[in-house]
Amino acid sequence: MxxxxxxxxxxxxxxxxxxxxxxxxxxxxxxxxxxxxNNYDISENEWIDRLYGSFISDVSAEMMVSKIRAGRQFNRExxxxxxx
Length: 84
Known about the structure:
By secondary structure, the protein is mainly α. It is 56% helix and 0% strand. It has one domain (7-70). The protein is built from 4 helices and no strands.
């Protein structure tokens, strides 16, 4: 279920929070927002990579899986049942 939120209400809420900040903190917020706006023109792949925290590698997914499986070490012992 999606809730419709009025942008003006959100802006007013944020401004209420920002009013209590110091001047230096407000300048940091403005710089951060400006940087975010300037970086808005990134490609679709870069945007998706940012969401999922993915990384770029020359190693294939299959090779990574095989290395993970090869590196597994099982050292637990299964106890047998004692039948009397």
